[in-house]
Write a structure and sequence with these properties.
The chain is of the alpha/beta class. The chain is built from six helices and eleven strands.
């Protein structure tokens, strides 16, 4: 699965790049903004391309099976930059993927993403994410939207809680999100689904399978 990781130099993207390169069923390519970042990916053994997401990266899409959007301005930037990256650049990339025949698009979103979010803390971020998610759902692409809770800088546990609608917020180590991305791409039942994810008690592969109906819950005896 030839996969372009958009936002590869970010915290999630870096972890994901290493894990995908070590797996046998992915052929990842890192999209980076600064040529100086290539050294890091060369050390990982990962090919990289240099491009500006906000200016468009259509030239790198032909031949890609999957695009992962893990880029983002983050919840602490101003509204203008958030709209530029998390909304407008994402929507442009979705349209370019459709034009160039990319088969699948995986979006890293957030619990609470909504074009009409009234969040008092990161409203502009959740609204931008909500617009991009809506564009992806309407695009006709095979898509997966992963909506994690607040991301943590700590080792993954390998265990999560996942559902199309959890009904509550929570936290998730970035390492676990990287594994969730890979397992979601492997499970065809995830296509066309939005999956909310927080730390929990189930193994990642099983939890994602249950969330999208690809596996049955074990019988309680």
């Amino acid at each position: 699965m030839k996969t372009l990781i958009v936002g590869a130099n970010g915290k999630v993207g870096t972890i994901l790049s290493g894990k995908m390169w070590a797996a046998h069923d992915f052929s990842p390519v890192a999209l980076i903004r600064d040529p100086r970042q290539q050294t890091k990916f060369t050390a990982l053994g990962l090919p990289s391309v240099v491009g500006d997401l906000e200016s468009g990266i259509a030239e790198f899409l032909p031949g890609m099976d999957t695009v992962i959007f893990s880029a983002g301005s983050g919840g602490h930037t101003g509204p203008e930059k958030t709209i530029d990256v998390d909304q407008n650049a994402a929507v442009r990339l979705i349209m370019d993927c459709k034009k160039h025949g990319v088969g699948k698009f995986l979006m890293i979103s957030a619990i609470g993403a909504d074009p009409n979010s009234e969040s008092q803390r990161i409203q502009h971020y959740l609204r931008a994410k909500g617009v991009a998610d809506g564009a992806l759902r309407a695009s006709g692409l095979d898509y997966v939207i992963l909506a994690p809770g607040t991301l943590l800088e700590e080792p993954g546990t390998g265990r999560i809680e996942a559902a199309e609608s959890l009904g509550h917020h929570g936290y998730l180590p970035r390492e676990d999100l990287a594994v969730c991305i890979m397992e979601s791409l492997r499970n065809y039942h995830c296509v066309g689904k939005t999956i909310e994810i927080v730390s929990g008690g189930k193994k990642i592969k099983e939890a994602i399978g249950y969330a999208v109906g690809g596996q049955s819950m074990p019988a309680i005896l």
